[in-house]
């Protein structure tokens, strides 16, 4: 056990007085005793640990009003110098690396950066051990060294990490401009009729459960765009309504985006403990999976420093392969896209660099 692993979160409470009436939420939270800098408070709001009168806050620019009760759940403190503790026991599956960035395949179960209950056992801690703290981009914060974009703890697959602030910013700009191509493989409940589809909604933190995100037309919601292509369909069984294997293309990067969008269209991700419909009552429908069937299988982008074109493809991990093998006999036939993509998922990982 690492020192401090047993640390617990701390609750900070404040009541808006006349001097703070009308203040932006991020600015107000930063004035509360024990709260960090304003930029760090923005991350707390985005992480859903700030409430106003018992309701999860959705926007850093929300205005607090006289008499509002604001509560903040502060995560366990990091080391006094702000630097992450390197963790040499976490294996990094690196697919490409140069002096500017890395492409790696994250294993399921690994948290991307420190959070309550995960102080030193994260991808960020492993990156510090591999690269050194001084050789990682810190634009996302000292506790998110190198992190460019995140995958949920139980989502596996390809990710990017940056070795300096300039590269980190450039990669985030590629995501913002929607030119960094990220594609995921997911198995969902039920029969998806159309071979292709587009889901465009607003997504924000759920007002009823801060652990969940929700589709909403609230003005504070952020636009989320997911397109999908059917790869294979599987006939219904005696205890399920069948399944559909999809490739999903992310044009935005909202928290839990694919999982929320699949639930929204009535086809929740198999094995999803948070957004799956009836998962607790019908475990058989989840085919024995202990996590969501979601894998980041493809990343394609132009290197922001060398301008080389990098295309990395990953294979499915063993647990997801076993899940598909269990229903292979129920396949209704791969689509044309499935005939192209599925062989890669059972082949060998690849990374092609074209200068």
Describe it for me?
The protein has 355 residues and is of the alpha+beta class. The chain has three domains: 10-74, RNA-binding S4 domain (Structural Genomics Hypothetical 15.5 Kd Protein In mrcA-pckA Intergenic Region, Chain A, Roll), CATH 3.10.290.10; 93-176, Pseudouridine synthase (2-Layer Sandwich), CATH 3.30.2350.10; 181-354, Pseudouridine synthase (2-Layer Sandwich), CATH 3.30.2350. It has seven helices and 15 strands. The strands form two sheets. Strands 5, 6, 7, 8, 9, 10, 11, 12, 13, 14 and 15 form an eleven-stranded mixed beta sheet that branches. It is globular. It starts with 9 loop residues before the first strand and ends with a strand. Residues 1-7 have low confidence and may be disordered.
């Amino acid at each position: 056990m690492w020192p401090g692993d047993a640390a617990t979160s701390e609750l900070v409470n404040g009541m808006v007085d006349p001097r703070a009436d009308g203040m932006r939420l991020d600015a107000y939270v930063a004035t509360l005793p024990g709260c960090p800098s304003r930029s760090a408070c923005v991350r707390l709001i985005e992480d859903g640990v700030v409430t106003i009168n018992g309701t999860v806050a959705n926007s850093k620019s929300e205005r607090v009003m006289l008499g509002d009760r604001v509560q903040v759940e502060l995560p366990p403190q990091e080391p006094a110098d702000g630097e992450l503790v390197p963790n040499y026991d976490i294996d990094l599956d690196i697919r490409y690396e140069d002096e500017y960035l890395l492409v790696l395949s994250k294993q399921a179960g690994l948290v991307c950066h420190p959070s309550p209950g995960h102080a030193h056992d994260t991808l960020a801690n492993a990156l510090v051990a591999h690269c050194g703290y001084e050789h990682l981009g810190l634009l996302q914060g000292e506790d998110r060294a190198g992190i460019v974009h995140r995958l949920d703890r139980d989502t596996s697959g390809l990710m990017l990490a940056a070795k300096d602030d300039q590269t980190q910013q450039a990669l985030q700009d590629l995501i913002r401009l929607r030119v960094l191509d990220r594609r995921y493989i997911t198995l969902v409940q039920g029969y998806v009729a159309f071979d292709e589809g587009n889901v465009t909604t607003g997504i924000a933190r759920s007002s009823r459960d801060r652990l969940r995100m929700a589709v909403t037309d609230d003005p504070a919601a952020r636009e989320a765009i997911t397109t999908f292509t059917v790869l294979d369909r599987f006939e219904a069984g005696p205890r399920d309504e069948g399944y559909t294997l999809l490739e999903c293309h992310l044009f935005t990067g909202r928290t839990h985006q694919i999982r929320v969008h699949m639930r929204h269209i009535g086809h929740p991700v198999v094995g999803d403990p948070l957004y799956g419909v009836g998962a607790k009552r019908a475990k058989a429908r989840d085919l024995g999976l202990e996590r969501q069937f979601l894998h980041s299988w493809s990343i394609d982008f132009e290197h922001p420093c060398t301008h080389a074109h990098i295309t990395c493809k990953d294979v499915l991990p063993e647990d997801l392969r076993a899940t598909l093998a269990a229903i292979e006999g129920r396949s209704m036939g791969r689509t044309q896209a499935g005939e192209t993509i599925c062989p890669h998922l059972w082949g060998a990982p690849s990374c092609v660099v074209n200068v």
